[in-house]
TrEMBL record, chains A, B, C, D:
InterPro entries to which the protein is assigned, alphabetical: PCD_sf, Pterin_deHydtase
Protein family per UniProt: Belongs to the pterin-4-alpha-carbinolamine dehydratase family.
Keyword annotations: Lyase
Pfam families reported in the protein's UniProt record: Pterin_4a
Record bears the keyword Cytoplasm: no
Protein name: Putative pterin-4-alpha-carbinolamine dehydratase
Amino acid sequence: MPELLTSTAKEFALAELPHWTLSENGNAIERTFTFRSFARAFGFMASAAILAEKMNHHPTWTNTYNKVDVLLTTHDAGGLTELDFKLARKLDRLCEA
Amino acid sequence: MPELLTSTAKEFALAELPHWTLSENGNAIERTFTFRSFARAFGFMASAAILAEKMNHHPTWTNTYNKVDVLLTTHDAGGLTELDFKLARKLDRLCEA
Amino acid sequence: MPELLTSTAKEFALAELPHWTLSENGNAIERTFTFRSFARAFGFMASAAILAEKMNHHPTWTNTYNKVDVLLTTHDAGGLTELDFKLARKLDRLCEA
Amino acid sequence: MPELLTSTAKEFALAELPHWTLSENGNAIERTFTFRSFARAFGFMASAAILAEKMNHHPTWTNTYNKVDVLLTTHDAGGLTELDFKLARKLDRLCEA
């Protein structure tokens, strides 16, 4: 099982992910992705779903029209691990050109 | 714009949708769909996304692994309209054999 | 039903779509989309599927890993109509930044 | 790399997959999946795409409206391996209730 990150490690990892914020309890990271249309939002989700399953690490995500709110945490570990930051970086990259 | 349904009309429509419940404020209906795997949950979402866009009526939905929580409301009308029940019936049908 | 386009109209429409070519028999247009990964190719397909169903005009498309070969024709009309070029433009736009 | 299957092994594996046929050159297996709608066909593809990427084994597949023609082969090995039959069984299972 992946190890829980220390507060310092979380801060360090978040510093490189300007679009993500720590949840109130410090156990998850969150980002809202906004797209030009529902079709584009769902295309992003389809790509992301494939990457998530491959990592065997799944988001909790909410979609309304052109917005996708993503929350990442490692349930088995009870908080944030390197897996969450790895998936966050992959999702960010999907939205770059 | 579709008309808001009366309380009686909502009750009548919900009686035919045993898996759905009225939200606390009465302005939305909700159902949790549970699947055997993340892959099946996302396949359902892909079919549902296509139907939703075709109706130009989109859910607010949250996915975590094999579960999909769907909330339907008609934002423009400020509550429940026939569109919500129409989409609910389409989503139910996707899960039948 | 949409009208078949004349040869002149096809040439005119294709001139604005540099990535698309006319099929040998002149009844379809074709483009291969290439992506950085399977996940991105499938994300494109998910967005495109939503747009296609909304137009009620569906591609014949083949995917292998990071490539998607799209063929557009209007079956009901027996050849190319404005619908094909409209969908082609929408698919092109999905791949822009 | 997975090993190429012998003719006997292929016949044995195909005997358990009544919906699949050997391609003419014996290097691939093929099945056409037919659905009630485009939305359902694409939902199947979304589930299948997730499973395929997880196996790191991808189909060559063609979709037209409610039909999906799937061809499976192991490119690296130059023919059929156990991976193809494993994915075929997974795809069949997606279509069961």
